[in-house]
Design brief:
This protein is an alpha+beta fold and about 500 residues long. It contains 19 helices and twelve strands.
Length: about 500
């Protein structure tokens, strides 16, 4: 009898369908090795969900992998090709300029997940970039991804952040990092744009068949499966953007290369959470005309989906006129679909029953409340949480938002009390967070990490954000908005 091997099992059970099925849709590429790596973050809860050995990941073995020093068995590093409309202008060749897809694993729920590096060095798609990532943006993606996941919003997440020991040059020299991102896939609208622009319908068809098999397998045997794919992607994006709007999230860079087919939020560069309600809110330093303002996100989602539909036209119908008419009808229907998803979100936040007969009345109630918040410059998160407390019987909660002698607010409250369903209190509690990732708290954590490699503020913030619906007086400082003058001057950056 042969002796058993004492070698440990591989860290990851890779099954890499993208590289296997689409080997020409990018380039095999090796990540660069960090010179002096050390952990900045390890997401143990995500590691557990992926079915990985947390202790091995936390040790030297995991550090060597997450820093690019060792390519683990079964990994097939691959830089994916994609294009994208950036602020409305088409960039025909983007791709993974500072990222590589390490491989795919199946998580404990049976779902396929990408593991990808970001900041791991130059690739064939880097153009003039250095392929690196600074520590601050890497930790921002970790913080916001965990916040969004806890809020129940589909999102990519960060498994690990490793400080490389090297400096990267931006406006000034900053400590570098590599993050490991986990995603349902990295298929983007921009992926389809690249192959439609450079390769043609046969390549798009192969990509679409892969996307269907991965995200919409029920469509595989349907004759109309490419129109079905467009429909499925539209539905997922309607739900996603509606959820963003419900918590005041502003993506900040809704380019087509940052819209996933899976319906997950991706790329937490210049993102931010709105505090005082104002649909015109913009934080991104490069969004000088407010293209991606909070209140424009629904329209931009439709615009992006129209670009996706254009890539599928030859597949939807061989008759170009028929293809355009069918795709146009689907895109034209998107605003009503997103509006319906938004109404569901807002009804949950206000404790209103799902009743199509009352849609007009409900919408007026919602719009009136948002108008009150706008005119009074009220914090969106705290205002909706105050409604939850009011519904739970707290006599002082409403007056924390509006003055007791505010006649308009009092009239609105009377109307709301007449429409809300007391049986939906638990639904309100699940819809109205007490904590969001407050911008000034995120910045304070990132400054501590970047300037002093003090990671405790980041971990404390992430721990708080993982329970956003639980009121904990000990965490009250994380719930407070920044001073108005701080928010007025706040700007976010892409982190590239």
């Amino acid at each position: 009898m042969l002796p058993r091997s004492s070698s440990p099992a591989p860290l990851f059970a890779f099954d890499n369908t993208y590289v296997r099925d689409l080997p020409d849709y990018g380039a095999r590429w090796q990540p660069e090795a960090a010179s002096k790596p050390r952990f900045a973050a390890l997401n143990r809860s995500l590691a557990h969900a992926l079915g990985l050995d947390e202790e091995r990941l936390a040790g030297d073995e995991g550090l060597a992998v997450f820093s690019g020093q060792v390519v683990p068995p079964g990994a097939e590093p691959f830089a994916q090709a994609y294009a994208g409309h950036q602020f409305g202008g088409f960039s025909p060749r983007l791709g993974d300029g500072r990222a590589v897809l390490l491989g795919e694993v199946i998580d404990r729920a049976g779902q396929r997940r990408d593991l990808a590096f970001k900041g791991s060095g130059r690739t064939p798609f880097s153009r003039n970039g250095d392929g690196k990532c600074a520590l601050g943006p890497a930790l921002r993606e970790y913080i916001i991804g965990e916040a969004m996941h806890a809020l129940g919003i589909p999102t990519t997440r960060v498994l690990a952040v490793v400080a490389t020991g090297d400096m990267v040059r931006r406006e000034r020299a900053l400590p570098g990092a590599v993050l490991t991102r986990v995603a349902a896939s990295h298929l983007r609208v921009g992926t389809f744009e690249f192959f439609a622009a450079h390769r043609g319908p046969d390549w798009v068809k192969k990509l679409a068949d892969y996307a269907i098999a991965r995200h919409d397998p029920a469509l595989i045997d349907q004759d109309d499966r490419y129109a079905g794919l467009l429909d499925a992607v539209c539905r997922r994006q309607a739900e996603l953007v509606a959820r963003w709007l419900g918590v005041g999230f502003i993506h900040g860079v809704m380019n087509t290369d940052n819209m996933t087919l899976s319906g997950e939020t991706i790329d937490y560069g210049p993102c931010a959470f709105m505090e005082a309600y104002d649909p015109a809110t913009v934080f991104s330093s490069i969004d000088t005309h407010g293209r991606y303002a909070y209140g424009n996100q629904a329209d931009i989602a439709q615009w992006n989906l129209a670009r996706f539909a254009e890539t599928l036209l030859p597949l939807i119908d061989p008759d170009q006129k028929q293809a355009v008419e069918r795709a146009t009808a689907r895109i034209v229907a998107f605003p009503a679909e997103l509006d319906a998803a938004w109404l569901r979100v807002m009804r949950q936040k206000l404790g209103l029953p799902e009743n199509t007969a009352s849609a007009t009345v409900d919408r007026r109630l919602i719009d009136d409340f948002l108008d009150l918040l706008h005119r009074h410059q009220c914090d969106l998160t705290l205002a909706f949480h105050a409604l939850t407390e009011t519904a739970a019987g707290n006599p002082h909660a409403f007056s924390r938002v509006f003055a007791a002698n505010d006649a308009e607010a009092a009239a609105w409250r009377t109307a709301w009390e007449g429409q809300r369903d007391p049986a939906l209190l638990d639904a309100m509690r699940r819809a109205n967070p007490w904590l969001i990732a407050r911008n000034h708290q995120v910045e304070a954590a990132l400054e501590a990490a970047t300037e002093r490699f003090d990671l405790a503020p980041t971990e404390r913030l992430v721990a708080a954000l993982r329970a956003p619906f639980t009121l904990d007086p000990a965490l009250a400082r994380y719930a407070e908005p920044a001073p108005a003058e701080v928010t007025a001057a706040y700007r976010t950056f892409c982190g590239t």
